[in-house]
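Hey L., structure's done. Input below.
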Amino acid sequence: MTTLKTPKGILLIVSGAAGTGKGTVNGMLLRDYPNFAFSVSATTRAPRPGEIDGREYHFLTREQFEEQIKNDGVIEYTEYCGNYYGTLKSELRKLEEGKNLILEIETDGAMNVKRLFPDSVAVFILPPDYDTLKSRLVNRGTNTPEDIERRMKRALEEFALVKDYDYVVVNEDGKADEAAQAIYDIVIGEQHKVSRSEGAIEKIFFENK
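Output:
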């Protein structure tokens, strides 16, 4: 499929409650489509065993993170359980390389990014239903009943914000590849928008005429 050549990639915001499978879906996008890249978040929490700086996170000290905030080096951030989490502005360089940049963030950060970058594309991943989401959390075997209830309550709060997103994709059990394909198709559709190809048509057909 051919699209008009545009100089920048698309900033793709992907959100979803815990258990919706957004990490799996995003992983498939990165695996199957070379024109996608992942925005690596920054955090002040300590690396866990096996985690590598620059792959799972950019691991910063609290002082370094606050320096980034002071110098306008982050586009969004939050503090959770005593640690900062956020997106470094330097990650946006990948857009200049023509990559579609996946920004996997929570709803609050997503809306902040959407305000800062109106041409970004926000996608919310949903489970097929409430019971499926709960069973996914239970089957992980890593969450206490109390933690599962807390996550389900938070999920309902997040689902109420779907209306603020541009697109919604349902991730059915065993069909994460189809959800990834749906997001890929969304990005291709966005690339066909005339508003994203400003100057491209003129360059092709009218310059040097």
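The longest helix spans residues 176-191. The CA atoms of residues 13 and 132 lie 24 Å apart.

-- N.
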